[in-house]
Fold this sequence. Notes:
Elements: H1 3-24, E1 28-34, H2 40-46, E2 53-56, H3 60-64, H4 71-77, H5 79-99, E3 106-110, H6 113-127, H7 132-148, E4 155-160, H8 163-173, H9 183-197, E5 209-213, H10 218-242
Parallel strand pairs: 1-3, 1-4, 2-3, 4-5
Helix pairs in contact: 1-10, 4-5, 5-6, 5-7, 6-7, 6-9, 8-9
Amino acid sequence: MFxxxxxxxxxxxxxxxSKMSAMNGKPFTVFVEGNIGSGKTTFLEHFRQFEDITLxxxxxxxxxxxxxxxxxxxxYKDPAxxxxxxxxxxxxxxxxxxRRPTPTPVKLMExxxxxxxxxxxxxxxxxxxxxxxEFAVLDEWFRxxxxxxxxxxxxxxYLKTTPSIVHERIKKRARSEEQCVPLSYIEDLxxxxxxxLINRTLGECPAPVLMLDADLDLSQITEEYKKSEHQILxxxxxxxxxxxxxxxxxxxxxxxxxxxxxxxxx
Length: 266
């Protein structure tokens, strides 16, 4: 359905992005957000076919091996003892992803410092896993980074899922550290993602949100992701066209822009 317009957009994007990147090097940044097991890595892999897109997956292996220590495993086994250390290291590794030089004009990131704070740290505070003083330290670090270092996005893709479905996926993928994760934990994270990205009652949503149905099985989810190609590339082109930093004046895209709203279900 989108094959011809998408090819046209790719050529336009490549020319426009090359000019913008030559000026300031700031890529069009997309956060891919969602619950544990929502298919974020699968979504990112779908975009590996585009040579002008850099994919940054969540640094799980770094969390599994910090000088020989598996912080992810320690956190799940004894969260009251290890949550603070784990989230501190998550903040460091995610900040590295935000600030990492990107050779392409588009960057897709699996999660962000925003979801780390508003979903995971928030859940640890509400459940009592973090002492109020520990939460205060993590919150101050987030506020400092947010106000002093550019970590913003141009678009957020929210892979919306049903907690029971992703809980089954987690059990099937058999990541050793996650086998003790209860459904109630997934449900709590789901509510926080919804309050952050959809209801807008929690924290700050730093960019427009494109919501995709990630409950679909593998045979259907590919088509859902193909729809997002057009949405993401079109939004990226529109942003570049409106940028005051573009090298030469261009006529705006004549067709109506695609609206990206929290309530949109493709």
